[in-house]
Structures are given as C-alpha cells and as structure tokens.
Amino acid sequence: MALSKLDNLYRQVILDHSSYPHHHGKLSTSNQQIELNNPTCGDVIQLQLAIDEEGIIQDIAFEGHGCSISTASASMMTDAVIGKTLAQAQELSEAFSQLVQGKTITLEDELGDASMLSGVAKFPARIKCATLAWKALDKAIENPNQTTITEEIKHEE
C-alpha cells in the first residue's frame, strides 16, 4: 500500500472514532469516575469505570468535549482496555504515552486502533490532546479507592 493510501486509512480511522466514538456516554453503574481537563485547549473528559473485585475493567465509558484527536483517542483507549486488568491497562497507557512521543514500543498490536495515533509525535502541541483520556485512566489506576477524581493536567505533564 502506498504511503499516501496508508495515511488516508489512518486519517479515516481517526475520523471514524471521532465521529462515532465507542463507549461514549454514561455507565448505569460505575465504581470510579474521573474528570480531567486540559486548560491549555479546553478539552474535558469524564471517564467512568466499572472495575470488578479482581481489578478487571468490566466496562468503561466517557463523555466530555474535545478536539477530534482527543475524542478519537478516548474511543480507542476504551476499546483497548476493556476486559483488561488494571496492571495491563497501565502498561498499555505507558506504551501509548511512549508511542505519541515518537518512541518505539513493543505493545503496538495490543493498543489496537490507538497505535494509529503515532503520527501525533510530529505535532507536539497535540500530544496532550491524544493523552488526555489515557491520563484520566492513569488517575483511576493510581487512586483505586477514590471514587471521584477531578483534576487539571498540569503544564509540565
């Protein structure tokens, strides 16, 4: 496949996730809610997780508003982590962070469609957009006993 056709495929997948996000909405039952916003651009995500007693993400959903990269990334993240343990989800989050910074990773297949956001590395101003949902997931993993978390991304992150 020619590079331009591959680029078009990547763009189409990102546009599809942005226009028709997976796991968008609210969960009827959740045991953790995180709201995270990026004051730099105004993107906001509310992430809800249903985590079972073994630490497996049984269900996940998000709401909020943001650019197409932020929305697509949230949709891709939910697809990648549902059914995973918190440790597996954290590993995927770390891999995604490395990927969008232009680093080589070994978990590209496990990221699914999220691996298509590797091109964000060429646009440093968009990295926070791509990582917003993943940072919200990180906050949930870091604070498993806190049911509601509301934070802003700090400028140094």
SSE arrangement:
Layout lengths: L2 H17 L12 E6 L6 E8 L5 E9 L2 H14 L4 H15 L7 H4 L15 H16 L5 E5 L5
Parallel strand pairs: 1-4
Antiparallel strand pairs: 1-2, 2-3
Helix pairs in contact: 1-2, 2-5, 3-5
Structure description:
- A hairpin with a 6-residue loop joins strand 1 and strand 2.
- By secondary structure, this protein is α+β, with helices and mostly antiparallel strands.
- It has one domain: Sufe protein. Chain: A, CATH 3.90.1010.10.
- Strands 3-2-1-4 form a four-stranded mixed β-sheet, covered by helices on one side.
- Helices cover 42% and strands 18% of the residues.
- Helix 1 crosses helix 2 and helix 3 runs antiparallel to helix 5.
- The N and C termini lie far apart (36 Å).
- 35% of the residues are buried.
Determine Rg (CA atoms, Å): 15 Å
CATH 2nd-level architecture:
Alpha-Beta Complex
CATH class reads: Alpha Beta
Secondary structural class: alpha+beta
Total beta-strand segments: 4
Number of helices: 5
Stretches where pLDDT falls below 50 for ≥5 residues?
none
Distance between the termini: 36 Å
Assign an overall shape.
globular
Q: Describe the oligomeric state of these chains in a short phrase.
A: single chain
Overall structural domain count: 1
Q: How much is the average pLDDT?
A: 89
The helix content, as a percent range, equals: 40-55%
Query: Sheet bearing the most strands, described?
Result: 4 strands, mixed
**Helix and strand pattern:** HEEEHHHHE
Here the CATH topology equals Sufe protein. Chain: A
Fraction in beta strands: 15-25%
Short description:
This protein has 157 residues and is of the alpha+beta class.
